Amino acid sequence: MTTVPRFAALPARAHWRTVDFISDLHLQPGELRTFDAWRHYLLHTPADAVFMLGDLFEVWVGDDSALPGSFESQCGDVLRAAAARTDLLFMRGNRDFLVGTPFLSQHGVHDLADPTVLTHAGQRYLLTHGDLLCTDDTAYQQFRQQVRTDAWQGEFLARPLAERQVIARQMRAHSEAHQAAQGVYAHTNDALARQWLQAADATVLIHGHTHQPADHDLGADAAGRTLTQVVLSDWHVTATERRAQVLRLTTDTGLQRLLPGPT
After folding, report:
1. Is CB count within 10 Å lower at the N or C end of the chain?
2. pLDDT tens readout for residues 173-203
3. Among residues 164, 69, 53, 72, which one has the least CA distance to residue 110?
4. Nearest Cα to Cα of residue 76 among 22, 38, 20, 112
5. Crossing angle (nearest 10°) for helices 138-147 and 150-157
6. pTM above the 0.90 mark?
């Protein structure tokens, strides 16, 4: 497994004065309050660009699951409406790595490689979903390597939709059982995060996946610059709980964590 991957490069567009980052919404039919909060946010954010850094969906078994009237189709409608007013960029996560480029293109969403270096107002930001940095979870890393191959994806997507949905439910149940046994979400490897930042010539790493929103000081690089790891919030909205942070980057104030208003 490659320790330091190849980084895609993305210069910010000239009109991107305000940029938002979100991840780990895990959109699903059983969490409609979270879906409503996401829809309200996307259709009202003042951001010029919104980066969705993985696990937008709880599960995605293929673009053909977005049948008319389906939950996936409703999500697509939201994306298309939002894309008419702001630039949307999507990075695949461990839950939705099967989202296809055709689906994104049809709904006005730009495909974003993992990892990507974003240059904004002269600063370089390293963006990733975050799962590649959780190297202690060796079983997951082996699984990830397998399911990201063209061969595995081709064989899986060739199965009937109903069969894929059953497999996805089984995999989700296995993942939840594993998570319950572990007690905590996986942690990223600090040394590897620093290595990535130095290789990318960036000072800020932005990612999700771990569901542990916080800012971490990773020390200094060879040039004496402070290296910072910014972990995004997951989204979960119920009658008694609200986790739905947005990380906002502006040319005037830098990075800020915000909580959009209720729907």
Report:
1. N
2. 877 776 666 656 678 999 999 999 999 999 9
3. 53
4. 38
5. 70
6. yes
